[in-house]
Amino acid sequence: SISIFCLKPGEPPPSFQVEEEEGSDDEVKVDDADNLQAGLVVGSLAQMTEGKAYHINVNIHRVEELAKIGNAHPIPYVTVEFGNTLLKTEAASSPTELHNFNVTCKFPLKTPVYEDSIIIKLWHHGWLVRPEPLAQGFLSWSVLRNTSMDARWFNLYGWNPDEVPDIEAIWRTGERILPNCFKGRLLVSARVEALDSDADLK
Predict the structure, then answer these.
(1) Is residue 117 included in any domain, yes or no?
(2) Which of 20, 34, 110, 148 has the maximum number of C-beta atoms within 10 A of its C-beta?
(3) Could you count the other beta carbons within 10 Å of the beta carbon of residue 22?
(4) What is d(CA 197, CA 57) in angstroms, rounded to the nearest whole number?
(5) Which GO terms describe its cellular component (predicted)?
(6) What is the share, in percent, of the chain residues with pLDDT greater than 90?
(7) What single string gives the DSSP state of each residue in 53-120?
(8) Which parts of the chain register pLDDT below 50?
(9) Going edge to edge, which strands form the sheet with 132-140?
(10) Whole-number percent of the chain with pLDDT over 70
(11) Distance (Å) of CA 136 to CA 12, 15, 56, 160
């Protein structure tokens, strides 16, 4: 590639240094148990870059009218994902048709932000089986930045296990199929909070 500079007479061209950054899963550590005791799940601190600091607050209030899985209701929990950060609520203690979470998932970030989709997933936490996804939905960071979302109910549509026995295997292929059955409804609110300084990014 060719770089073009506008220089004054006798002014040397600028030099560039490329530094490689190595990411590690250990850089993101969230103590879900401690934070959930205060009704808060906090994501990793945003990378320190020039820009405006924000918190995205996604409030998971309540789930109800949950459909049965086989002969029993699910043991629900919720994950909220934005960028490379995934936050998780505690699961209900037993199978239930409704459950109050009352948890705020907080994502610290700084602009520029190149992700827009905030992914909310409802899961069933089986005792002797791997977690089973029940439904998912999306919020928009750019929309929330301009307009907060008051608490509202979202009807949840998932996949009939008789027709789609392993939705995660399908997700891994990159294919997306439309949900085909009602799974319940989830009460969610969300807002973006502009921060005064980087010191508030916590």
Answers:
(1) yes
(2) 110
(3) 5
(4) 17
(5) membrane
(6) 46
(7) EEEEEEEEEEEESPPPBTTB---EEEEEEETTEEEEPPPPSS--S-EEEEEEEEEEEES-----EEEE
(8) 1-8, 14-38, 46, 48
(9) 85-88, 76-82, 117-124, 132-140
(10) 73
(11) 55, 47, 19, 14
What pLDDT sits at residue 62?
97
User: In this predicted structure, what is the pLDDT of residue 194?
Assistant: 92
15 assigned to some structural domain:
no
Please give the Cα distance from 41 to 89 (Å, whole number): 7
Q: How far apart are CA 13 and CA 8, in angstroms?
A: 10
Task: Determine contact, residues 88/60, Cβ cutoff 8 Å.
Answer: no
CATH of the domain at 183: 2.60.40.150
Domain that holds residue 174: 40-200
Cis peptide upstream of residue 76 (ω within 30 degrees of 0): no
Beta bridge partners of 125: none
How many other β-carbons are positioned within 10 Å of the β-carbon of residue 101?
Answer: 23
- Let me know: does 115 contact 53? Beta carbons within 8 Å: no
Could you tell me if residue 185 is inside a domain?
yes
In the chain, the number of structural domains is 1
Overall size of the chain counted in residues: 202
